[in-house]
Amino acid sequence: MLHPVMRLSDCHNIDDFRRLAKARLPFPVFDYIDGAADDELTKARNTAAFAGVDLVPDVLAGVAEIDTSCTILGRKSALPLMLSPTAVQRAFHWEGERAVARAAEKYGLWFGISSLATRSIEEIAALTSGPKLFQLYVHKDKGLNAHMIERCQAAKFDALALTVDTIVSGKRERCLRSGFTTPPRFTPRAVWSYATRPKWTLDYVLREKFRLPNLDTHVTEGSGKAVSIAEYFNTMLDTAMDWDTAARIRQDWGGTFVLKGIMSAGDARRAVEIGADAIMISNHGGRQLDGSRAPFDQLPEIVDAVGGKIEIICDGGIRRGTHVLKALCSGATAASGGRLYLYALAAAGQAGVERALGILKDEIERGMRLMGVTSIDQLTPDRIRQRH
């Protein structure tokens, strides 16, 4: 039976934060975070896939001292976990990306901001010295693409992640039903939900104007003009993007370069060929091609193809520390996720994100001790078995 989650102190796992976020957000905003494409099969599969593998613990291993740190994309991380870049975070809580940046720095973790972030490249760079990546959407406006890359170079972002799986938008039916746009609009169908969430609504109405400061130098969509994310993707993004585009962006950027949205072994090999430093195996949280594989299910195949030649980040579906451990045992450099901190951000801002990260840190540490593991490099394939 589900227990009620009324306060932050009642949250003991990521699903608890989800329930608190649902209670505190107007339903169109919650459904934007929680929803995915079509029948949402892939979204469910992303987490369910971890149940298909069992951990095999060792005992009597002397685990009084353990080291959860590792190196990801050339920078030290306190945990083998990254916070994936996600869009329009001020729609979920007025602090937005600022809260996530501060929480990530406190826990010594990589985090990313989206092209569609609600805080600027420059503000986030000034806020934190922690490792940070910028997620690039390739727009039809080539001047905008160049401008974002130049701003990231000037702000000394540590890595650029090119998202490659949003050529067109997935069919996000919850958003079609709710009419969710960015900026959020008070539609007649949802007005009661906004009215009964006065804290969210007053923060949204009375605090600084909602904008997309990494884009509004070139486009009004999403800042001055309300659009659905699907409409934005389908009208603004470059459907002609190909491997030559990716190679050119890598060259223009000149720094640590990641391809986000790789799902096949063949594409992983191409990523190595163009000189990418890392790939994020990702299906965009199940928000694009429904019926596609879970990243964790594709991980062994991709590790066989390019393991050791490139860093491999398993992105999506992470809800537990043991999911991170299973990804590493399967050959990933690290795991990453978006909803795992977005629910917490929506529930309680920076305090929520910090509590969620603290819980995941405890789960990773406890899991390592119970497995008889004292360092990340001991998380090897012999410590897992496929469930048949």
Which tags fit this structure?
388 residues, alpha/beta, TIM Barrel, eight-stranded parallel beta barrel, two-stranded antiparallel sheet, 13% strand
Strand order of the largest sheet: 4-5-6-7-8-9-10-11
- Our count of helices gives 15
CATH class category: Alpha Beta
Number of domains: 1
The major pleated sheet works out as: 8 strands, parallel, barrel
Describe the structure.
The chain is an alpha/beta fold and 388 residues long. The chain has a single domain (19-372), classed as TIM Barrel, CATH 3.20.20. Helix content is 41%, strand content 13%. Helix 12 links the parallel strand 8 (256-262) and strand 9 (278-281). It starts with 13 loop residues before the first helix and ends with a strand.
Quick synopsis:
By secondary structure, the protein is of the alpha/beta class. It contains 15 helices and twelve strands.
How is the secondary structure organized here?
Blueprint: H1 14-24, H2 27-34, H3 41-48, E1 53-55, E2 70-72, E3 75-77, E4 81-83, H4 97-107, E5 110-114, H5 121-127, E6 132-136, H6 142-154, E7 159-163, H7 173-178, H8 191-195, H9 198-206, H10 229-236, H11 243-253, E8 256-262, H12 265-273, E9 278-281, H13 295-306, E10 311-315, H14 321-329, E11 334-337, H15 339-371, E12 384-386
Parallel strand pairs: 4-5, 4-11, 5-6, 6-7, 7-8, 8-9, 9-10, 10-11
Antiparallel strand pairs: 1-12, 2-3
Helix pairs in contact: 1-15, 4-15, 12-13, 14-15
